[in-house]
Amino acid sequence: MEVILLERIAKLGQMGETVRVKDGFARNFLLPRGKALRATEANTKRFESQRAQLEARNLELKSEAQKIQAELDGKTFVIIRQAGETGQLYGSVATRDIAEAVSAGGVTISRNQVVLTTPIKSIGLHQVPLHLHPEVDASISLNVARSPEEAERQLRGEEINVREETTMESLGLEVGAALAEAGDDRE
Fold first, then answer.
1. What whole-number distance in Å separates Cα of residue 116 and Cα of residue 113?
2. Which residues have CB under 8 Å from 12's CB, separation 6+?
3. Do 78 and 27 share a structural domain?
4. Rounded to an integer, what distance in angstroms lies between the CA atom of residue 21 and that of residue 3?
């Protein structure tokens, strides 16, 4: 199906271009969300008459997205979750959780703007990209920790999941040293 794009769409085209897409993509995504019009004579004339308005709206949305990008880029947000000793989360951190954390930080974004290929399932610092506008992207740092104190330690660069392992041999040496100090000659 041929459609006229009403906004820039990544890997498809710029505003005003007539592109050929699969029927399902046009019917289920582009047309219902107002991102495109069917490429007919009437719609072509309608687009040309509204082109200035659409470009002005696009510039306005882009400038708003750039303001949000300047505010968010490089900012760190903390999410507290329960996790095991190895740092594996009992649940996961999804796009909804990230959007809520950013919104609690003072900037409202939707979960559709968070680009997360797989849910976060471990404790640590994670870089999360945000798609604010077709032409504006930002990146935030997400600090997933068990407690606020642990989050501060992670920000300082301390390794949280390092556990000192004790072996039977090291325990035996420690017991032998303690017995020698006590004056006991048994070994």
1. 9
2. 5, 19, 21
3. no
4. 7
- pTM strictly above 0.85: no
Residues facing 20 on adjacent strands: 2
The CATH number for 14's domain is 3.40.5.10
Whether residue 83 contacts residue 123, with contact meaning beta carbons closer than 8 Å, is answered with yes
Alpha-carbon gap, residue 6 to 14, rounded angstroms: 8
Residue 110 domain-assigned?
Answer: yes
pLDDT (tens digit per residue) in 8-50: 888 899 999 999 999 999 999 999 999 999 999 999 999 999 8
* Residue 173 belongs to some domain of the structure: no
User: What is residue 123's DSSP assignment?
Assistant: S
Domain that holds residue 129: 73-156
